[in-house]
């Protein structure tokens, strides 16, 4: 440690949307906050849309509105979802409607870069925030404070360390939390397309040959692909040229949106279920993918992480005056507040992944019968929409 460490109430390790939202929420609460993260990279030259998109729920929108980030987003680049149609692999179909559920929209489809750049702008105007692009390379927790040493040689002293550094979290390893991962042997293939037919602000999802294909509405006549494919098949899809990939997606989506033109290169990310034995340790709290990782078939991973941030911020704002941010009692409140939500979504997404990836006639009959049953129950569909909205 340096002889004169820089002192903060909280140090957030990790960028991305969850880490930067956490840093902004803490800084806006008046806490001296340090953020260890890179600046948003922006779109590659000539790119129309970011390949990384998220389906944000109303709970995520509410948090970003509270932080005055949502209002700064370019509305012309936001894609509302008013309807969702889900097709089984044996003619079963589900239809979810914002109108029928009495909600303004089911979700917003938003580019990662769009939100991250808005977060960066908001962070630069926070007088209580200090931004470091150096890496954390050492962490020490003592009774009265925690210390983070940086690759630049600086040392940060803090009451609380927030680990928002992703699925391979360095902070999680330092705090000694046990992580378990089950590899789904699938890769999420993402790309964006221009569609011949209007999508009508409708999200589409097909379960086909133990894989899941989703087309999500972007502004105008564009859609975003999320194809949860077996890893070998995913590698083959990513290796295709744009015209070949578009043809494969047209076939998989039964040409619902007509001809497709690929406008961004395909990218892939491995899919798995990841759990940790605890979200907190003395003076440390985990949020986002550092705390949990779920299958993207329900599009809830980012929403789950942002609900972590909202819960942690609320616990801190409502703490007793005599407690500091690293108090174990305070951190356990955060952990208790998040445990049920995280476990529920893990059970739902993992169960659906198992059911829809199971081969065979019996499995196909069970899942399609279940879909047909849910489709005939308005109350069940309304409950599912309510749960997805957060």
Automatic annotation (TrEMBL):
One of its GO terms (biological process) is ubiquinone biosynthetic process. One of its GO terms (molecular function) is oxidoreductase activity, acting on paired donors, with incorporation or reduction of molecular oxygen. The keyword Transmembrane helix does not apply. Pathway: Cofactor biosynthesis; ubiquinone biosynthesis. Its cofactor is FAD. Residues 10-346 form the FAD-binding domain. Signal peptide: none annotated. Keywords: FAD, Flavoprotein, Monooxygenase, Oxidoreductase, Ubiquinone. InterPro entries: FAD-bd (IPR002938), FAD/NAD-bd_sf (IPR036188), UbiH/COQ6 (IPR010971), UbiH/COQ6_monooxygenase (IPR051205). The keyword Flavoprotein applies. Belongs to the UbiH/COQ6 family. PANTHER family: UBIQUINONE BIOSYNTHESIS MONOOXYGENASE COQ6, MITOCHONDRIAL. This is Ubiquinone biosynthesis hydroxylase UbiH. It comes from Caballeronia grimmiae.
């Amino acid at each position: 440690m340096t002889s004169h460490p820089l002192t903060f109430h909280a140090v957030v390790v990790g960028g991305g949307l969850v880490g930067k939202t956490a840093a902004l929420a803490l800084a806006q609460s008046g806490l001296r906050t340090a953020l260890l993260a890179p600046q948003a990279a922006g779109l590659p030259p000539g790119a129309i849309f970011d390949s990384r998109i998220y389906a944000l729920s109303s709970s995520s929108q509410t948090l970003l509105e509270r932080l005055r980030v949502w209002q700064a987003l370019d509305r012309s680049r936001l894609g509302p979802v008013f309807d969702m149609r889900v097709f089984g692999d044996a003619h079963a179909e589900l239809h979810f409607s914002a109108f029928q559920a009495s909600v303004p929209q089911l979700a917003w489809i938003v580019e990662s870069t769009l939100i991250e750049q808005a977060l960066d702008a908001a962070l630069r105007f926070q007088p209580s925030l200090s931004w470091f692009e150096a890496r954390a390379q050492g962490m020490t927790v003592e009774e009265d404070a925690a210390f983070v040493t940086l690759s630049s040689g600086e040392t940060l002293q803090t009451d609380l360390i927030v680990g928002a550094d992703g699925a391979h979290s360095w902070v999680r390893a330092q705090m000694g939390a046990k992580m378990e991962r089950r590899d789904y042997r699938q890769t999420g293939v993402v790309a964006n397309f221009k569609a011949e037919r209007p999508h009508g602000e409708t999200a589409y999802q097909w379960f086909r040959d133990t894989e899941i294909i989703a087309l999500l509405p972007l502004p105008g006549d564009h859609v975003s692909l999320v194809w949860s494919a077996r890893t070998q098949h995913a590698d083959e899809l990513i290796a295709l040229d744009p015209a070949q990939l578009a043809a494969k997606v047209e076939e998989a989506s039964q040409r619902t949106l007509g001809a497709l033109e690929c406008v961004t290169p395909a990218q892939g990310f491995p899919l798995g279920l990841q759990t940790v034995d605890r979200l907190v340790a003395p003076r440390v709290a985990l949020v986002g993918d550092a705390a949990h990782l779920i299958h993207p078939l329900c599009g809830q991973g980012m929403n789950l992480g942002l609900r972590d941030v909202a819960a942690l911020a609320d616990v801190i704002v409502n703490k007793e005056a005599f407690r500091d941010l690293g108090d174990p009692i305070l951190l356990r409140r955060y952990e208790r507040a998040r445990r049920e939500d995280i476990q529920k979504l893990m059970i739902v997404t993992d169960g659906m992944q198992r059911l829809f990836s199971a081969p065979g006639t019996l499995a196909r009959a069970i899942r399609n019968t279940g879909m047909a049953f849910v489709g005939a129950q308005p109350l069940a569909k309304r409950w599912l929409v309510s749960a997805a909205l957060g």
